[in-house]
Specification:
homodimer, alpha/beta, Nucleotidyltransferase, domain 5, 5 helices, about 50% helix
């Protein structure tokens, strides 16, 4: 299962591709799409959309996971972030892929084991979990983290759906 | 000049097509794209994007005008609205069209002559200015209003660019 994680942002949109082979996670690529604040908003959104479509075409993921947004921002920041986030969700679904959303709490819990972990801890843990040669850029590390979170959730739901001893579990 | 006006929203995205022939404004179509809150966000955004693309294909506008968003909302509302607004801007620019943005103040001033006009006044004035048989739905009326605002701005800038008596005006 190949997963694209996206951390959308108005200035930089982080992306990370990982492959899940059983319990192993393999890093494929990570980076960030930067846009210029001098460009018109529509142009910036088009750049993000096109780059994500090109990356999806190149790496052929089977699922997309997008980070939900920290809500305690002011309305102006939330609106800007919403634009980029809408584009990320659209790029995934327009490629025919399932799109999952995870809160920052879920992502940090999955990667660091602590929901209130800092940016640095997320960067260090993604490096460790994926055997990266160096620490990824901040937005790219967040994108890898949401991809890892999806891999864990997916793995867990698969295990629940197919219990090894043939016992049917009741899911609440 | 054929103009598509869009009033993006998380529940309903209004659209309005008008044609500007000199000083005359001709109404072509208006309506609203509704999405279901039970659907996943990515699905709802895809519906808005596809509908807008289909309408652009049908009416072949030469410009898109999108309303800017009233800022005094809470961050959660602003974020939701940002998703839909990003999709509207992307639909315009991905069709190769120039995309203009106008504040609610500019739109209301252009249509009603008063920047703090209410929704009802905008609905009534779009009916009058475009000779509509009946008052348009609220979101559709807002979309027609932003299209009218663009037509006025465009007309004005054309007049400024080509003064009738051959006098070169200095533009500040």
């Amino acid at each position: 299962m190949r997963i694209l994680g996206i951390d959308p942002g108005s200035k930089a949109t982080g992306y990370g591709f990982i492959e899940q082979c059983g319990n192993r996670l393999i890093h494929l690529d990570n980076g960030a799409i930067f846009t210029h604040s001098k460009d018109a908003l529509a142009v910036r959104l088009q750049i993000i959309y096109r780059e994500l479509c090109t990356l999806i075409e190149k790496y052929q993921p089977e699922a997309v996971a997008v980070e939900q947004v920290f809500m305690a921002r002011n309305p102006a920041s939330a609106l800007k972030l919403g634009h980029a986030r809408g584009i990320a969700l659209l790029a995934g679904i327009n490629a025919g892929l399932p799109v999952a959303e995870y809160s920052a709490l879920q992502v940090k819990s999955a990667v660091v084991g602590y929901g209130r972990a800092g940016k640095n801890q997320v960067q260090h843990m993604t490096k460790t979990l994926l055997n990266l040669p160096e620490i990824a850029q901040e937005d790219a590390a967040d994108a890898l983290a949401v991809a890892i979170c999806h891999a864990h959730s997916h793995h867990l739901s698969n295990k629940l759906a197919a219990p090894s001893q043939g016992v049917r579990r009741r899911q609440s």
